[in-house]
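Risk register update: the risk of archive-format incompatibility is retired. Evidence:
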Amino acid sequence: MTNDLSMTNYLIAPAIMTGLGFSFALILAVAYRYLKVAEDPRIEETEALLPGSNCGACGEPGCRAFAEKLVAGQTSPGHCTVASPEIVDAVAALLDVDAGGRERRIARLHCAGGKAQAYQIAEYRGFESCRAASVVSGGGKGCAWGCLGLADCKIACGLDAIAMNANGLPVVDPVKCTACGDCVDACPRDLFELVPESHHLFVQCSTPLAGDIALSLCTAACDACGRCAADAAPGLVRMEDNRPRVDYAAGGPARPEATFRCPTGAIQWVSGKQFQAQPRIPARRGG
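Archived output:
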């Protein structure tokens, strides 16, 4: 008798679980049938037209999310700064909207102090990482604000838009750069900035020091002489914390003349790949 009861219990439990499973499956099937929200087929079509790089330059986590925003009318095709004009026009035609858009942005580095300019005060032999070096000893460079040159930005760039030059500085390829911001996040000294491609006047120094103190750490450092601010269009360049700040919204137009009297090359007119500052010419300091 006892054995019969035990066998019955063994059979009842699976039967109950199976019944519950079928019940929940039925409820889910009915809910899916009557409560599902149909997806706009244009999302798939729009995503297929986009570059598929999922770079985040548009401000969305990927091309799928951007396509959803486009179909919902919450953004415009031109906000994909990676897409060619033909792709932008194709998306606009598909959705019957204005292409719109914004100016393409690229990453720029606020430092020109490579191996030939920045003085070394120690030899770093730790883990080959800018973030690790910044925590341990600053990588051995005397300037505590400059590029460490250990290529965290290059490694973080999934589009191969950054290369390290012979001077130990990262060089951004403006053709490949999508302004995704990975290099901004990777740099422990916040030296990268995403700027509009048309902003050619750029300060390549981040030290808050001035005069000979700044130059004792790096020959390409800004010595806070203020000549660039004096030579630029009114309001375009102003001195803050011993550094020139270029403000395109406050003044303009920007012209290369603002760089001509810089004694160290800390402010440059960058029109292609970012290049290092020219060697300091002491004779200019009197001008």
